[in-house]
Prior knowledge:
The structure is a single chain. The longest helix has 17 residues, at 16-32. 16% of the residues lie in helices and 43% in strands. The chain folds into two domains: 2-132, Roll (DNA Polymerase III, Chain A, domain 2), CATH 3.10.150; 150-261, Proliferating Cell Nuclear Antigen (Box), CATH 3.70.10.10. The protein is α+β, with helices and mostly antiparallel strands and 268 residues long. Strand 2 and strand 3 (44-50) form a beta hairpin. The chain has helices spanning 16-32, 82-89, 156-166, 219-226, and strands spanning 9-13, 35-40, 44-50, 56-63, 69-72, 76-81, 97-102, 109-115, 127-132, 150-155, 172-177, 181-188, 191-198, 204-207, 213-218, 234-239, 245-252, 255-261.
Amino acid sequence: MDSIKDKKTAFVITDAKKKDMFLSMIQLFKQTTGQLNIQLTTQRLHMQGMDKSHVCLFDLTLQSGWFDHYVVEDTRNICLDTSTLLSVIGLKSADQSLLCYMDDGDADHLTIELKQLLDYKKSEYNKHCKIPLIEYDYEEMSIPDAEYDAEIIIHAKRITETIAQLSKFGKDLYIQCRSESVEFRAAENGVELRVDVLMDDMTSYAVVEDEEIQLAYSMVYVNTMCLTNKLSPDVELSISNEYPMKVRYDLGNDSLLLFYVAPKVLDN
Length: 268
């Protein structure tokens, strides 16, 4: 990795699964915002952003140990065009590592290399791209811890497929938490689809006793921006009458991806 030798700001992803995870996260973020605000500290990479309607917020923390190589000597705040970043990293092949760094004499660009580090496995040409930085004009939101009325840990693939099916039957997703099950529902033009998920079908489920939890969320935000089966085996949904729904992915190495989705106002 001669190209990042002596760089003061650089990170590398070689692991094939993590490369796919990183690509999947940028694909999700593209649905939310056209610009990625990234804070690079000595210990972690942090991205946060919100859609223009202020309905959905994402918060990504990748600890330095999540990367195959990570060095940041001084904290940097940078901003990138989401579509450009996605186009570049989407060019990677399975055998190519993702090398990202900033040259010491160039504070206006992020360099990304897609490079095969093992000579005997070379099957693709190495690629080298410089991406111009956008002026960073974002104030990070501090998200306080909260006590939720219902905590659901469920298989990511199954719930992603279920919500995708429900999205064909309505623009809103209704969630009702009962003592031993969770109901997901969509309805439009007189047609209604209900899906009951029993406690035994969830990895974990906890709900406040005698609390009525029935909320609605915009289907496009939940289905398109938040749910995926490409990041972790399970996804955690935290639901409350008082707070936005939290969608949590455990990325390993103490790294997390969180989404917060504001509920819709239910008609009485």
